[in-house]
Automatic annotation (TrEMBL):
<keyword id="KW-0862">Zinc</keyword>
<keyword id="KW-0121">Carboxypeptidase</keyword>
<feature type="compositionally biased region" description="Polar residues">
    <location>
        <begin position="149"/>
        <end position="160"/>
    </location>
</feature>
<keyword id="KW-0378">Hydrolase</keyword>
<dbReference type="GO" id="GO:0008270">
    <property type="term" value="F:zinc ion binding"/>
</dbReference>
<dbReference type="GO" id="GO:0004181">
    <property type="term" value="F:metallocarboxypeptidase activity"/>
</dbReference>
<keyword id="KW-0479">Metal-binding</keyword>
<dbReference type="GO" id="GO:0005615">
    <property type="term" value="C:extracellular space"/>
</dbReference>
<dbReference type="InterPro" id="IPR000834">
    <property type="entry name" value="Peptidase_M14"/>
</dbReference>
<feature type="region of interest" description="Disordered">
    <location>
        <begin position="149"/>
        <end position="169"/>
    </location>
</feature>
<keyword id="KW-0645">Protease</keyword>
<comment type="similarity">
    <text>Belongs to the peptidase M14 family.</text>
</comment>
<feature type="active site" description="Proton donor/acceptor">
    <location>
        <position position="270"/>
    </location>
</feature>
<keyword id="KW-0482">Metalloprotease</keyword>
<dbReference type="InterPro" id="IPR057246">
    <property type="entry name" value="CARBOXYPEPT_ZN_1"/>
</dbReference>
<feature type="signal peptide">
    <location>
        <begin position="1"/>
        <end position="18"/>
    </location>
</feature>
<dbReference type="GO" id="GO:0006508">
    <property type="term" value="P:proteolysis"/>
</dbReference>
Length: 316
């Protein structure tokens, strides 16, 4: 049964990188995060640091088939529970490692579908694309977004759902964000997906080009990309890119967070690879660790410490 648990304290994770040598199931991720074994699948959120400090919210595994995303949040948790705690001096960090637990479990199940994207909404061939279920621009179209792909019925993996915020997973994310905003303020939102090797400031309304925060993100974004490309030498053969808001074709959770909570920094991270020819959703397990390490680039580059990074020119 899907439900939202109370905020759970982040507990120390095993001090080893060997856990990241293979993809993990939902149960294995939960055990890694808090040393418990839940008998039901829940949308879980883990809190690191003082909740009275401004909050950073990190989501992973909104889409079931994006297994590398599911490995990224445990990596961030391991760093926060270890020695890499500088960010906790000024902020609390909230991690939702598997936003779509039922869909993720189905993608691992022998009777399931490795490339399943949506949640497991009853009564539909596919479920709901949680990214398209957030209230902002739920059923609208404009020159800034194509709407046909999300307007189709439940036979599509991009089905936006019967109504705004109809899905329990979507409501869970909004409830967590509401709680953070009410307690200390939500100042940074990061949504980790795959694949494309793209970083984007995630707000696609017509005001995006004149929004002060979007303008700042368009400066910060390329620097985050440079930092990610410098880790493990990925930028020598491939290249993360920065996309502006207008490069995307539909509204999503980042747009909702941007407007609903006083315009916090809202980032979309599409992890490697760049293309299906490089592995697509089935990125080799040997690339798990270097890929999740690239998420570290965000820790010092949220727009406040841009001087830490230098630009790197990508091949081609």
């Amino acid at each position: 049964m899907l439900s939202l648990l109370a905020l759970l304290p982040g507990l120390p994770a095993p001090p080893t990188d060997s856990w990241f040598e293979a993809y993990k199931t939902f149960d294995e991720i939960v055990t890694f995060m808090d040393n418990t074994d839940f008998t039901s699948r829940n949308v879980l959120v883990y809190q690191y640091g003082d909740p009275t400090k401004p909050g950073l919210l990190v989501l992973c595994t909104v889409h079931a088939r994006e297994w590398i995303s599911a490995m990224a949040c445990p990596w961030v948790a391991q760093q926060l529970a270890g020695d890499d705690t500088a960010i906790l001096e000024t902020n609390a960090v909230y991690i939702m490692p598997v936003v779509n637990p039922d869909g993720y479990a189905f993608s691992h199940a022998p009777e399931g579908n490795r490339y399943f994207r949506t949640n497991r909404r009853p009564g539909s061939y596919f479920g709901v694309d949680l990214n398209r279920n957030f209230p902002r621009h739920w059923n609208s179209c404009s020159q800034w977004r194509r709407c046909s792909s999300g307007n189709v019925g439940s036979s599509s993996q991009t089905y936006r759902g019967p109504s705004p915020g109809s899905e329990p997973e979507t409501r869970a994310v909004m409830a967590v964000a509401d709680e953070i905003e009410a307690t200390s303020g939500l100042v940074l939102f990061v949504d980790v997906h795959s694949y494309s090797a793209v970083v984007s400031g995630r707000y696609d309304d017509a005001t995006a080009d004149i929004s002060p925060i979007s303008a700042q993100q368009n400066v910060a974004g390329p620097k985050i990309v440079d930092a990610m490309n410098s880790i493990d030498g990925y930028g020598t053969t491939h290249c993360y890119q920065y996309w502006t808001a207008a490069d995307w074709s539909y509204s999503a959770d980042g747009d909702h967070m941007f407007e609903e909570y006083g315009q916090p920094w809202s980032w979309l991270i599409e992890l490697r690879p760049q293309s299906s020819g490089q592995g697509g959703f089935t990125l080799p397990a040997s690339e798990i660790l270097p890929t999740v390490q690239e998420v570290d680039a965000l820790k010092g580059c949220t727009g406040r410490k841009l001087a830490l990074f230098t630009f790197q020119v990508c091949p081609g």
